[in-house]
Amino acid sequence: MWKQKDFAFNRNEIAGAFGDIGTDFPILIAMILAAGLHAPSVFIVFGCMQILTGIIYKRPMPVQPLKAMATIVITGKIAGPIVLGGGLSIGILMLFFSATGILEKIAKLVPKSVIRGLQLGLGISLSMLAFKEYIPSESTKGYILAGISFLFIILLIDNRKIPASLVVILFGFFYSLFFHFDTYTKFSKFEINLPIIHVPNFEMILKGFILLTLPQIPLSIGNSILATKQISDDLFPNKKPITIKKIGFSYSIMNLISPFFSGIPCCHGAGGMVGHYTFGGRTGVSVLLYGLFYLLSGMFLGNGIEILIKAFPLPILGTLLFFESLSLILLIKDSFQNSKEFIIVIMTGLLASGLPYGFLIAMVVGTSIHYTSIGFKTFTSIGDKNRN
């Protein structure tokens, strides 16, 4: 049943709608170009999944590209059919994990300190992406754009009448329109596009499982399932908690549907929910509006989508991404009171952000230490004025 409090249409929901664009948009474009995917299909399906989750969860539960898969696809230029096969294989696997209760057992085993550490690791990774790839992308001009965007957000972050991210997005749009107007003139025509039907064969599903799904599983369980559940509980303590099983089922259903319409593998994500929330999103409307942006872009812009991303300044997206990562990192503050938990959080975060398969290693190491009697007296005494 639809209730007004679950679907609030206001300026803050509009601003929150673009809280995760700095992460998603460039990844989608890079995957389309690297794998030779049909751009309209990718955007239409991605948008539909956003709309679906916004309606189902009635809070800013976003859909994101699978980051480990995306990294492999972009760097290795994995062919489109293998990408779609990988999406279907992880959908099947996550359905099995959800239906058999494996996800719930893992959730009970992994302590909160490890989840906080995984969130810290994701925050560090996203901030490094912003600093190394997005903000420097236009040299000195990029730093100036990022500085102006940073100032806008700092001044408006607590203002509910003038949403910070909306101002920054409009600033980027007008900047690109003024300085890259010739890019926009390359849109030759507008036409209605529909997703291309695709049926992955067994060979592509198997290759996708080996090349893409296996490296993705630890990050999906740690961030897409466990951390997203924790974030939802943190940000919406007065709402009915979302269950691990529900998140797992919606994750799997998205990937059981998307490949058949040439959509990329996708998931939920803790960072995405924080991004929407940071810039004003409190209901399913922010995700619904975000989905409409992709749906309409895919239907009417077609292959001109890549022109749009080239015109919009990446340093501005990088600034939005930085504040999303900052919000993720700040979640560790509830672990300050317990010295051992705090050390596990820091250790897990550094391992997750610094190692190949870091999320898997961090989850195993952090959980193992949690259940030992190790007290870390040497570390906890660091900074103690009374220490000899």
From TrEMBL:
The regions listed as transmembrane in this protein's record are 27-57, 78-102, 140-157, 163-181, 287-305, 311-332, 344-371
Give the Pfam families listed for this entry.
MFS_MOT1
**UniProt KW keywords:** Membrane, Transmembrane, Transmembrane helix
Asked if Transit peptide is a keyword of the record, the answer is no
Q: Check the record and name the InterPro entries matching this protein.
A: MOT1/MOT2
Asked if Transmembrane helix is a keyword of the record, the answer is yes
Q: What is this protein called?
A: Sulfate/molybdate transporter
State the organism named in the record: Leptospira limi
Organism taxonomic ancestry: Bacteria, Pseudomonadati, Spirochaetota, Spirochaetia, Leptospirales
